[in-house]
Design goal:
The chain is α+β, with helices and mostly antiparallel strands. 39% of the residues lie in helices and 26% in strands. Strands 1, 3, 4, 14, 15, 16 and 17 form a 7-stranded antiparallel beta sheet that branches. Strands 5, 6, 7, 8, 9 and 10 form a 6-stranded mixed beta sheet that branches. The protein has a 3-stranded antiparallel beta sheet with strand order 11-13-12, sandwiched between helices. The structure holds adenosine-5'-diphosphate and magnesium ion. Magnesium ion binds next to loops. InterPro entries: Glutathione_synthase (IPR005615), Glutathione_synthase_a-hlx (IPR014042), Glutathione_synthase_C_euk (IPR014709), Glutathione_synthase_N_euk (IPR014049), GSH-S_sub-bd_sf (IPR037013), GSH_synth_subst-bd (IPR004887), PreATP-grasp_dom_sf (IPR016185).
Amino acid sequence: QVVNYAPFTLLPSAVPSALFEQAYAVQQDFNLLMDAISQNQEFLEHTLASTIKVDDFTARLFRIHMQVLEEGLAQSVFLGINRSDYMFDCGVDGTPALKQIEINTIAASFGGLTSRTAAVHGRVLKVLGKSEEASRLLPNNPSKELALGIAKAWELYGSQSAVVMFLVEEVQRNIFDQRCVENELWNRNIRVIRKRFRDVFEKGSLDDAKRLYMDGQEVAVVYYREGYVPKNYDQQNWEARLLLERSRAVKCPDIATQLAGTKKVQQELSQPGTLERLLPGRAEAVARIRATFAGLYSLDLGEEGDKIAATAIADPDRFVLKPQREGGGNNLYGEELRQVLKKIRDSPERTSYILMDKIKPQPAMNYLLRAHSPLQVSECISELGIFGVYVRQGKEMVMNKAAGHLLRTKAIEHADGGVAAGVAVLDTPYLV
Ligand code: ADP
Ligand code: MG
């Protein structure tokens, strides 16, 4: 009903090409890792044990995961679409290093809109008389690559008449991003329907073979663009989620893969030996993954947790305090971090958080263009995301790719938040 342009930078931002290539080179490893975690019930249970005692949202997801496993998985084709996000940490000698912020395993967005930003920035550079620079901007089309993954999963599901269902928000603020992916599917003669949890609750059903039907239409793939924050769920929506997870349809992601994307799992991955156990015989992949890790610390009750909590209270600017939440605006920094951590330092509540070293990128100047906002030059930092897509049938990986990139840029005064949170804007990397 109301259309605004998506926010973007006036100019592309400089990104060190070596770090850009490093981020692409590790993406298939991260795909393998997320997929391995999703199949490792023991690891998920052990890693999330303390978290689910205090975090009701993670606990509910975990219960659905357990219930589906106990019933026996009806799903045999698996589709992962993720986005691994990085910042360029500026070391003491000024050399930037690629450090992962997090990996998003559900509803990783902006693959659609960002497929258009290189053209926007190319045009701006030409207007400025910089056509040579414009010609150096890399082509980037995640929407097509993500759609190819969805199409592959649809094909392996094996029913010509079945549809792909985008599970969308109640209030749709990012529909055009999703439409870019959707259009690619229609171009391949795959039908797409858009439904909310509420529609699934009212009209969804399973047959004897746990095939999922919506309004009598068989659904081959459920692509979640919703369902990652507590406010997405009321009792009916939880029931709808359970119905979807029990079904044979390919869920992108299945609930185990959603759990693999939690901050607690990210922290556990940084523990010595964990990556080696999850990816046996893949020493090179393990090394590539580990090279992107910043310091991550558990706040589980015990000596180690006490020690790091005390360090963070004494020196909060070194850290970010993160709860098990997605979508931006949930993390704590600086004085607020100190206050909250002081309050919960001796309570089990602290185990619902992790601590992470704060990444400190070198700022650069740019203009951030946002509808209805005044234009001003800002000191900015950027976050690079690489999309990953993979498809597994039974035990066999049939697709594993890096699927394009996203650069988001924000003014330095905002510690937290992405594009959807109204803080960051779309950008294009200019490799240097
Ligand atoms: P969410 O799941 O809410 O997106 P993130 O871990 O991505 O959580 O954090 C949100 C934002 O906070 C990031 O986009 C980034 O700008 C900032 N941020 C997160 N972790 C760090 C960190 N370790 N150092 C600096 N900034 C961070
Ligand atoms: Mg994030």
